[in-house]
Amino acid sequence: MQHKSNKRRNPSALISLVPIMIVGISLYFSVFLYDGQPHFSLFLGAAAAGLLGYFLGFSWKEISNGLINSINKGISALIIMLIIGMLIGVWIGSGMVPALIYIGFDLLLPAWFLPIVLILSCVTSVITGSSWTTIGTIGVTAISVGYGLGISEPIIAGVVVSGAFFGDKLSPMSDSTNLTSSLLDVELFTHIKHMLYTTVPSFLIALLFYTLLGLFSVKEADIGIEVIKYQEVIKNHFNLSPLLAIPPLVVIVMVIYKVPAIPSLTAGLILGGLTQIFIQGQTLEKFYQTVYNGFMIETEIPEINELLSGGGLSSMYNVVAIGILALAFGGIMETTGMLKAIVNTFLKFTYRIGSLITVTLLTSVFLNIFGGNQYMSVIIPGEMYRESYREKNLQLKNLTRTLEGGGTLTSPLVPWNSGGLFVLSVLGVSPLSYGPYAVICWLTPIIIAIYGYFDITMHKLDKVEEYS
């Protein structure tokens, strides 16, 4: 049965909130109460939005096309996620990540432990493009070593999360960074450069805070034995050749010359595979296993096993599935006019650029809290406020920067969000405990809002053609 367009009814804001409320309630049970996954909750929300749209007068073909078009917008980012999964496993197996950790151990000085961990987390996240990989490697190590220094685990977790998500935002290999820029048709490196205006100040403030905290709170301790033990295990299992620097350097050069993300990542993957085979002496069979299942290592130290195992194509299936469902949900909400109804309500409070920026930030935070997934907190507000930024003569890179600050960076601060749950599962520290110390994650949105109200780096639209 097909509805005629002249029978369509414009959804009210209250009706439009019903699918989001359904997702939020379902997530409470599936994620928070039963420690499950958010996939079905997103599917349920998409189904509810589609059903409401049908009764509002939309045909199934229109709803289906809206769903498909939304997924098409994010397909390149979803492919990048899969490549990143393969890359992480291969770069661990090739010895690049172990070498980075080995060098990092040499830099561990008690009083400077916190700022060093921040810098290592940032560098690792930029190189790998994955905040989760950084948390699973540098984070696990920092928690272990920091314990011997007598530093509170929430403090260490906060530092790691700050560095991991800071580096993630500035990495051209980051799935969320690619997703955000591609959804709004903003060139990747334009998006990353525009974020520097807000992330660099928050990084410097955080670095100063952690330095002072370390100098005045960390006691001297003998961590030499623990570090040497870890380094010996790494050295025994990997050939730490200077040639390991070639794959990341090639990727960095390609990034500098603005080579698109997919060929850059593919080059890094192939070079990493050659390194794994010819420098580490692993078989072609092991390489293929690593590409799909990730790299696995077994040593006498459980922490090292956790530290140097992970990645693989299969590790991204869960994230890609969430991305597809979130895109489908957002596409149906947009096609049926429900996003517009919600936007029109919120836009009543956006008289100035600063208020538009603040409302965008709050919407992303709201969806992180009630949506349970950082992709939703970027995708849905991106569709909601696209036209509003155009109307205020703002380039869309202002919107992508705001979405990253309000959506991606605050996701690890919510205990039942996918970001917060991941940190809890890997580091064993609740977001409620480490949240105050994750300075970059909550300070960056504040800086973005301040920039909006004082019109700082709010780049205006010069040509209408830029948005055509």
Automatic annotation (TrEMBL):
It is a multi-pass membrane protein. NCBIfam families: antiport_nhaC. The gene is nhaC. The keyword S-adenosyl-L-methionine does not apply. One of its GO terms (molecular function) is antiporter activity. Residues 163-454 form the Na+/H+ antiporter NhaC-like C-terminal domain. It is found in: Cell membrane. Belongs to the NhaC Na(+)/H(+) (TC 2.A.35) antiporter family. InterPro entries: Na/H_antiport_NhaC (IPR004770), Na/H_Antiport_NhaC-like_C (IPR018461), NhaC_Na-H+_Antiporter (IPR052180). The chain crosses the membrane at residues 12-34, 40-57, 78-105, 111-133, 145-166, 195-218, 238-257, 316-337, 349-370, 434-454. Its main location: membrane. Keywords: Antiport, Cell membrane, Membrane, Transmembrane, Transmembrane helix, Transport. It comes from Alkaliphilus serpentinus. One of its GO terms (cellular component) is plasma membrane. This is Na+/H+ antiporter NhaC. Pfam families: Na_H_antiporter.
